[in-house]
Design a protein that fits this description.
The chain is an all-alpha fold. It is built from eight helices and no strands. The protein has one domain. The protein is globular.
Length: 124
């Protein structure tokens, strides 16, 4: 059992990830965004999704709700995100989005979604 004053940090962080992904599935993007950004540096739930997918969910959900200054510091220039930015095309485009060139970001997101749908179709 987890207490409010202490407890198992790994379990607490895992619970946040589970809750965040559940909120995404229920289309509560705003609720998920805050949980996702809190868990970026402590993500360990690889049984749910890969780290790259988790970063993608965190970045895309927080684009909608973070103020521009926080978006820049936590997502665009965040060290965890910068470490994998070449592996995820949309993360490379976050700096472009932050610079008000959202048409390019829209193009990258649509390509990414198309790739994910094709991967799911091939898996079936």
């Amino acid at each position: 059992m987890l207490s409010k004053d202490g407890g198992d940090w790994d379990r607490r962080n895992r619970l946040k990830v589970y809750n965040a992904l559940c909120k995404l599935l229920n289309r509560d993007v705003k609720g998920a965004a805050g949980l996702l950004i809190d868990c970026i540096s402590t993500f360990s739930c690889t049984e749910l999704c890969s780290y790259n997918d988790f970063i993608l969910y965190a970045a895309l959900s927080n684009i909608l709700y973070l103020p521009r200054t926080e978006l820049k510091s936590k997502i665009v220039d965040g060290p965890e995100i910068l470490s994998i930015k070449n592996e995820i095309p949309v993360v490379v485009s976050l700096d472009v989005f932050h610079s008000y060139r959202s048409l390019h970001l829209t193009y990258c997101v649509s390509n990414l979604l198309r790739q994910k749908v094709q991967a799911c179709e091939h898996a079936l």
